[in-house]
Amino acid sequence: MARWPLWFLELLLVPAAHVLVAPYTKVEESFTLHAAYDVLRYGLSPANWEHWDHRTFPGAVPRSFLPPIVLGLLSYPSAALASATGLVATSIGIQVIVRLTLVACFAAAFTHLARTLQRRYSTSTADWFVALTLAQFHIPFYAGRTLPNFTALPLVVLAFSYLLDEKLWAGIALLTATATVIRLEVALLAVPTALALVVQRRLSLPAALGAGIAGGFGALALSAPLDYALWAPTLPHPSLPDFTALHTLWPELSAAHWNIAHGHAAEWGTMPAHLYVSALLKMLAGAAPLLLLGVVWALLLGLSAKSGHVLDNTTLRRTVASAARTLGPGVVCLVAVLSTVGHKEWRFIVYAIPPLNIVAAACAAALAALPRRALRALSRLALTGLLGITAAFALFSTYVSTHNYPGGCVWRALEAARLPHKSTIHFHSYPLQTGASLFTFVRGKHASPAFPAPVDVQWVYSKSEEPSLQTPQGAWLADLDAVVTERWREFAGAEIDGHKMWALIGACDGFDGVHFGKEGVQVRTSPKIGLLRRL
Length: 535
Ligand SMILES: *[C@@H]1O[C@H](CO)[C@@H](O)[C@H](O)[C@H]1NC(C)=O
Known about the structure:
Blueprint: H1 4-21, H2 27-42, H3 53-56, H4 66-84, H5 91-120, H6 123-135, H7 138-142, H8 148-164, H9 168-181, H10 187-199, H11 205-231, H12 251-261, H13 264-267, H14 275-284, H15 287-304, H16 314-326, H17 328-339, H18 353-368, H19 373-401, H20 410-417, E1 424-427, H21 429-433, E2 460-462, H22 472-477, E3 482-485, H23 488-493, E4 495-496, E5 499-500, E6 502-517, E7 520-534
Parallel strand pairs: 1-2, 1-3
Antiparallel strand pairs: 3-7, 4-5, 6-7
């Protein structure tokens, strides 16, 4: 029986479980999430563009709308079906559907790669690749998070699959398209990979250039008109002084130029050069020793070149050699070049993990098939242990991470408060950055086939950054009915003419730290966000 349906199911269910236990999102996810929201709620008609989030809250550095629009369109049928059948009762269910749609893209791409591994190397290499990938924390937890890095990941993995399958032109074209539209750092994979293929005489220079041009310009031909039309009305904006409408023809390049030219990347902090080594080790977890052993093993076999040795394994040698030859240059270049950039985040190099997992999987498969029975039993025990430790670490990390979205619980506190129809609820930025997305505004006017029907009691949600609304007096004088803020202590204590203005009626806890004590491991939380009602 074909094995890929099982892989697809596993690759779907594990990240889906992560989505269900941590359904809320952070600010980094919000551009893509909210653009998908706008597609679902308003459709693509230009007549409604003025309602889109980037128009009502302009000022963010432009990114391409192509990925979120595709995600929104892909989510549309399930969102409409779930709304029509009553399967989801609130717009939060629609947020989960959007995230699960991204998970489905992830699962499709990784299944494609697993099938290539099976065809080219061995079924057990593919099995181990899927098992290691899913036992780790970062990729499965983020597979359903609408960060540009994770809308790029499925495409990058599909490109890896093409490359390993000798569909070199398609692989290079897809990497270039992803770099052009979604994340420019993918160029650090695309360019060295293409060069290596040319040097290895597997692809001619004209073919490599052709693939790059077709991928890059092909993607821009789709994205540029869309981005220009959607972004141009928001520019120029005071927070983006020299960003013109023309820059939105290629937002990735403009944003990179803006960040570098203005030194904005440094605003996010400078990290030590070796940060990515520890980031890779954390992401790989139990796959790290397998990766090292696999490389050393293949090198030793390659050097001795004595087949028939008890530790010889042709499949291992072939897998490591071909992964290193085809994907190695890109992975090394990505990590090395980004290590020279001051600002570092693990997700910038997340694309290195699948190729490294392939080598680790090849090693695991060879270990599990060692010819001597005692040796084989021992190595299988060790492999089970590594997989178990990796999965336990992932479970623990997920458990801790679920406490990290205090803004996600605001809607429950609001529901409990039973505010009257047409109440205006104002959000400060912290709750909006930690989980209070547009989808959590469940009593809005969601009149769209992709949303559950609007409820009778509706509220007006305000995200305005108007400075006067930041203070207890200003918010009170503006006639707001409720305020959701991280500065709830200040609000609850504030008085006007001798009487209090705001009453604390709800709170949301957030993560403080992990405590290892006598009673075992404890995740410490404390109130982070307060819900205040006008007195
Ligand atoms: C080599 O490893 C593969 C798994 O990738 C396994 O199926 C095969 O039996 C191994 N060959 C030898 C000679 O151990």
